[in-house]
Amino acid sequence: MIGLAACFALLGAASNAVGTACQRKAAATVPAGGGLRLLFALARHPVWLAGIAGVVCSAMFQALALVNGPMALVQPLFIMELPFALFVAGLLMRRGLPAAGWWAVGGMVGGLAMVLIAADPSGSHDQAPMVRWIPALAVGLGVMATAVALARASGSSLFRAAVLAGAAATGNALTAAMLKSASATLETDGLTAFLTTWQTYGFAVLGIASLVLLENALQAGSLAASQPALTIGDATVSLLLGVLLFGEHIRTGVWLLPELLGAGLILWGVLRLTRVVPHAQQTLAGEEAPAPASGVSPQLARPERSDGHTDGGAG
User: Fold this and answer.
1) Which domain range does residue 173 map to?
2) Distance of alpha carbon 315 from alpha carbon 272, whole angstroms
3) What single-letter DSSP state applies at residue 308?
4) 122 pairs with which residues across the strands?
5) How many domains does the chain have?
6) In this structure, are residues 79 and 19 in contact, taking their beta carbons and an 8 Å threshold?
7) Alpha-carbon 285 to chain mean position
8) C-alpha angle with apex 258: 113 to 6, nearest 5 degrees?
9) What mean pLDDT comes out for the span 246-262?
10) What gap in Å lies between CA 13 and CA 61, rounded to an integer?
11) Assigned domain for 37 exists
12) Residue 43, Cβ neighbours under 10 Å: how many?
């Protein structure tokens, strides 16, 4: 069952990568905006709708993974979405990963393997009592609301991108937790029970909210600012929810050292990958990369959005 869950999780990561690449391509073609207005503008683009189809397929694979394995195993595997997304977008734009990019991918894969082997997630319940759900939702939604408030108050696009991505990551983790419960209800009690449990509507509403936060994070600043918070945040919050909500077990004690080393490798790989891949932001967005100004390193050249502003600068 664990192996099946891992396979479904990787398929979900790959599907989400395709969806993310399409969403980023669409996000680069609309003027900067916020909230639901941005979502309505994106909905007019067929490529964005194709991206949503990828996200829907990813959710189906994710649900299958979550009913077959612990959340602390399934969600960290979605870290592989970033290299999958760069690979897919690179194929579409005929841009291969440089050697340094492959080293970064190797660091992510190695770090992820180290974390999962050391943590050895096991023992999962499909449902959690409300006495656990209430504090989890209160803290998670509070973190998301605080992140949005900080983003609105900040004048830095890098900071806005990072905190909005962190809020989206928290929402994604909570969505996964509710999806796990709802999927288990569907499997054991049938469609009627699935349609009457609050988690079904919870993951739908929170999933849309997380999507809005993600789109705004992508518009707010560079990939190097948003992707680490999105990648590491989702895995970390999901692991905590797996343990605190569903009674999953991970090894601690001496195993914390390789777990922390693995997490450090993942973070290094994510940061490295978003910096060493030539024009990673444009590659993921499906744009032609502009030529950098004389004397400016390609890695430091900031992509121009369709509204005439550059990503990664002060807002």
Assistant:
1) 70-285
2) 24
3) S
4) 249
5) 1
6) no
7) 16
8) 25
9) 92
10) 9
11) no
12) 11
Query: Whole-angstrom Cα distance, residue 147 to residue 129?
Result: 27
For the whole model, what pTM was predicted?
0.75
In SS3 terms, the chain reads as CHHHHHHHHHHHHHHHHHHHHHHHHHHCCCCCCCHHHHHHHHCCCHHHHHHHHHHHHHHHHHHHHHHHCCHHHHHHHHHHHHHHHHHHHHHHHCCCCCHHHHHHHHHHHHHHHHHHHHHCCECCCCCCCHHHHHHHHHHHHHHHHHHHHHHHHCCEHHHHHHHHHHHHHHHHHHHHHHHHHHHHHHHHHCHHHHHHCHHHHHHHHHHHHHHHHHHHHHHHCCHHHHHHHHHHHHHHHHHHHHHHHHCCECCCHHHHHHHHHHHHHHHHHHHHHHHHCCCHHHHHHCCCCCCCCCCCCCCCCCCECCCCCECCCEC
For residues 225 and 278, the model is more confident at: 225
- Among residues 43, 88, 77, which one has the least CA distance to residue 284? 88
Contacts of 141 (CB under 8 A, 6+ apart): 174
Report percent pLDDT > 90 for the chain. 33
DSSP-assigned letters across all residues of 241-265: HHHHHH--B---GGGHHHHHHHHHH
Q: What is the pLDDT of residues 47-79, one digit of tens each?
A: 788 888 888 898 889 889 988 889 989 988 988
C-alpha to C-alpha distance for 312 and 292, rounded to whole angstroms: 15
pLDDT single digits (tens) 220-231: 776 667 878 888
Alpha-carbon torsion angle 214, 270, 310, 168, nearest 10: 10
Least confident of 81-85, 86-90, 231-235: 86-90
Cα angle 197, 199, 202; round to 5: 125
**In a domain? residue 239:** yes
Residue 231 resides in a domain: yes
Element spanning 149, H or E: helix 130-153
Residue 47 falls inside a structural domain: no
